[in-house]
Amino acid sequence: MHPTNARSRREFLQTTAGLVLAAGFTGACSSVPRAAAEPKHWMVACRDAHLKATGQPDCWAALKYLGITGVEVDVTPEILCPALFHPAKQYSLATPAGIDALAGELAARGVTITAFCMHNRFDDRLEEEIAWMRRLVPVAQALNVKVIRIDVAPHKTPVDQFLPVAIKACKAVCAIGEGRPVRYGIENHSRFTNDPAVLDQLFAAVGSPQLGLTLDALNFYWYGWPLEELYGMYEKFAPRVVHTHCKSIGYPPDRRNVRRPMGWEYAKYAAPIYAGDIDYKRVVAILRKANYQGDLCLENECLKHFPPADQPGVLRKEIELLKSLA
Question: What CATH number has the domain spanning 3-25+43-325?
């Protein structure tokens, strides 16, 4: 990059970040969403939580080792990015300087944050969650992050009483994002949002285009749905998908197409996506038909089945499969 251009970029990012913080993270960086064009290729990404398993000295070297330029980044309520590891740096997005520093790293290394990942507790601390989102949405805009993955799961509310709480929370965060090019991806996760009927009710009641789905193709299967029923669920919700988590499991043949208890033997049978039951070629075809515009993001929950020395190779092999499909 030419030094003058680099300086101009830094000045722009500093100005943008300053406006964000001066406005109390309440909307100083608003912009009009741009029409999305169907990409020739999707970006392949990985959750930042897996990067240390590569054995590389920092997160940037880990991404290079995996051969990807996309990453989903965990963000804390303090707007820290703890899984972006580096021996000499900690990444915080709580200040203009921190936003500028990470933006510079991303630009220099050609890396894109495909999604921020929040771990929400809406029924436990709703006001704090809303304040967290008010801070994070403008930061996402400043870094051109298009998706924020959210948890909509009960923590202290009975499952059968949680829907009104979920609707209220999702309406509140959608109001924060209204008119901005940042969408929320509810992950189908845990007991609540792995029920398609619940997702239908939630999307209908919130009624906002800001609210989409982080499709975890495995989680419906984890919940207990038979394998051949999964693809109809993917088709049903494909128009809502804004982000993905790609992982798998390899059940015994006689347990694949029957209804199983939720989470049945998950730890035992979790498998890499290249060895599991879910046909990701079929998943990708469904998403393409629905004009999906996001990434294919690897999430691995079976690495503990492999010796540490083999884990980097497992991740690379999974990434290669996703790249062949993307």
Answer: 3.20.20.150
